[in-house]
Amino acid sequence: MNKLDAKIPMGPLEDKWKNHKNHMNLVAPNNRDKIDVIVVGTGLAGGSAAATLAEQGYNVKAFCYQDSPRRAHSIAAQGGINAAKNYQGDGDSVYRLFYDTIKGGDYRAREANVYRLAEVSANIIDQCVAQGVPFGREYGGQLDNRSFGGVQVKRTFYAKGQTGQQLLLGAYSAMSRQIGKGRIKMFNRHEMLDLVVVDGKARGIIARNLVTGEIERHSAHAVVIASGGYGNVYFLSTNAMGSNVSAAWKIHKKGAFFANPCFVQIHPTCIPVHGTQQSKLTLMSESLRNSGRIWVPKNIEDAQAIREGRLRPENIKEEDRDYYLERRYPAFGNLVPRDVASRAAKERCDAGFGIENNDTNEGVYLDFSTEIMKKGREAAIEKNISNPSEKQIYDLGKAWVEEKYGNLFVMYEKITADNPYVTPMKIYPAVHYTMGGVWVDYNLQSTIPGCFVIGEANFSDHGANRLGASALMQGLADGYFVLPYTIADYLSADIRTGAIPTNLPAFDDAENQVKERINFFINNKGTHSVDYFHKKLGNIMWNKVGMGRTPEGLQEAIQEIEEVRNDFWKNVKVPGEANAMNMELEKALRVADFLELGHLMAIDALKREESCGGHFRWDHATPEGEAERDDDNFMYTACWEYNGQNINESVLHKEPLVYENIEVKQRSYK
Question: With contact defined as beta carbons under 8 Å apart, do 19 and 9 qualify?
């Protein structure tokens, strides 16, 4: 049985990372070209890691299922990236970023990792500026910042609503330089289908060429998994449709513990579901909560009239609007953390005040009229316009909003056909990010020696809820500034190992298992498509393992997921061939893993008898409807060990969470 050892360094919190780096083993520059490293995933975490390791001199093999690393889902991040630089002079610091992250995660994250994340955050911005990332700037040329949920300072750096894209292009340019030098061998349109473990160590992967269908063996001295999160277990989410859990789940089945799978983030500002044939959801950046005010009608009759098309929201008077976040959480208002904002929206819609006519009445407004007029008046003063008309004020304010968020407004109008400068945006919570993932120690190594996991694929630094703009921060911190140090400590023992051969029995076994599964899907004479089963799973997950959970609902979910899973293996139909491009086969392999993961998520949610962050149990709520933690019994990371095909027999290990540098208390944003 694997033993959990987080390998947290001794000493004061602020010295742990510095002292740890000072005492780790190194690989000398002249020995690095003797070592091969596989990186699976080329988003911000994987791309930055591959580029940095190659620049240091290692031989890197990078894999992505997209046709280019530029298409990694990191490109979809809109709002920004956090860093404790305190450019605004409003009291920010490394400690405050650390504290906000721990508090935002509802005290379910590891202190040492979070502090390190805050500590290296400032370096990320310098690195990206040097790469040419066009961050927004103030009139004096200094990098600008904006606020995000869960904090009371401005620490989020941004590039309009395209921050993820610009950061990914920075990482990709660094990768491209190393590809040109021959230090990175890039495998586009390849998907990892299994991990190869030799003598207890990760020594390679089995991959499928998604164009030709060929099954390939690739060896290395270490394997880095940077394949993102598992939000698509819900079918409808803000993730790209190809985003999946397979790489992380394969290493879980080879011995890597999976931690806190029930910790899923519901994002409050998604465009509502509009039909049963929808295949994914579109996110509107959290940065819009800086300037937008969230509301529903005060009168249920007005909500009904809006849903029926008899009343326009812009015609509802100010006194008839319920700005419920400002009412319930006056200290933070519209900038409460995502889990808090999401549950508040659900509560209003469940009470009958939802404004979207989609059978479920799920929708609230994100309104920019107040900000437009406020910024318009400021601009009129700046321009020395005396007695400006309402139209002049509106036009000036609209110009300010357009400069700040213009591309997001264009995107919204193209999708909904509503002009958000006039008609408030319709939003509703949706599955977005996953805080759970593969368990890693302080060195980012899983319970399989030589298998490292970074970015959203690991159980992360975010506890039970991630603060907005921290995903990009963690991905780049892991890839640029943490993994390159910690992996060297492991690889220092491999400088005389030599190349890992791919004709070992472990490679034979792994390849045979992959081929056996592929042949099953191609030859199974089922009657239903892969999407048929994925949608059924997603419906169970959203309704019973979603925003609000109950013991009864979770027990039902466990049973229902088992039934769907059994039906899947009997009745799934995969057209096409194995030895060719076959997207249905790709989906079948991924959905098979989602079915097992969804089962474990429900078990984990049932076992955690408390509410914390994104995990909300209605049987553990305060009278005001807030999350009620149980620190005496559940202040731990739940680490699940795979124990065979019966997910019910997974073994739970607990990593206690010890807080020595902050006071643990009930979260309050009021």
Answer: yes
**Residue type (1 letter), 326:** E
Are 87 and 77 in contact by the 8 Å Cβ rule? The answer is no
Provide the pLDDT confidence category of residue 404 given band limits of 50, 70 and 90: confident
pLDDT digits (tens, 9 = 90+) for 616-666: 999 999 988 889 999 999 999 999 999 999 999 999 999 999 999 999 998
The answer to whether 337 and 266 have CB atoms below 8 angstroms apart is no
pLDDT digits (tens, 9 = 90+) for 290-313: 899 999 999 999 999 999 999 999
- pLDDT of the residue at 358: 77
Instruction: Name the residue among 535, 614, 582 with its Cα closest to residue 233.
Output: 535
**Cα 150 to the center of its chain, rounded Å:** 17
Residue 604 has pLDDT above 80, yes or no: yes
Are the C-beta atoms of 474 and 453 separated by less than 8 Å? Answer: no
Rounded Cα distance, 242 and 655, in Å? 32
For residue 1, what pLDDT is reported?
Answer: 42
Contact 104, 463 (CB under 8 A): yes
Look up residue 291 and give its amino acid. S
What gap in Å lies between CA 340 and CA 473, rounded to an integer? 22
Which of 116, 293, 321, 338 is the catalytic position?
338
Count other C-beta atoms under 10 Å from residue 345's C-beta. 26
**Rg (Cα) of the chain, in Å, rounded?**
25
pTM of the model: 0.96
Residue 492 structure tokens:
């220092």
Going by pLDDT thresholds of 50, 70 and 90, the confidence category of residue 2 is low
- Mean pLDDT score across all residues of the chain: 96
Q: How high is the pLDDT of residue 290?
A: 87
- Amino acid letter, 165: Q
Helix (H) / strand (E) element for 55: namely: helix 44-56
Residue 45 in 3-state DSSP?
A: helix
Q: What does each C-alpha distance from 634 to 95, 390, 411, 650 come to in angstroms?
A: 25, 55, 42, 18
Angle between helices 246-253 and 583-607 (to 10 degrees): 60
Phi, psi of 228 (to 5 degrees): 85, -165
Strand ranges in 492-625 using DSSP code E only, listed in sequence order: none
- Where b means 16+ CB within 10 Å and e means fewer, 84-99 reads bbbbbeeebebbbbbb
Give the SS3 label for residue 62: strand
How much of the chain is in helix, strand and coil states, percent to nearest 5? Answer: 45, 15, 40
Cβ pair 191, 593 in contact under 8 A? no
Predicted confidence (pLDDT) per residue in 524-554, tens digit: 999 999 999 999 999 999 999 999 999 999 9
Rounded Cα distance, 636 and 655, in Å: 5
Instruction: Tell me the residue ranges of DSSP E strands in 396-532.
Output: 425-434, 437-438, 451-453
Q: For residue 186, what are the β-bridge partners?
A: 62
348 is catalytic: no
- Plot region of 228 (φ>0 → left; ψ -120 to 50 → alpha; else → beta): left
Per residue in 322-367, pLDDT (tens digit) is 999 999 999 999 999 999 999 999 999 999 999 987 777 899 999 9
Question: 211 is written with which tokens?
Answer: 């164009």
pLDDT 10s digits, 62-107: 999 999 999 999 999 988 999 999 999 999 999 999 999 999 999 9
CA 108 to CA 465: how far, in whole Å? 9
Token duo for residue 198: 């030799």
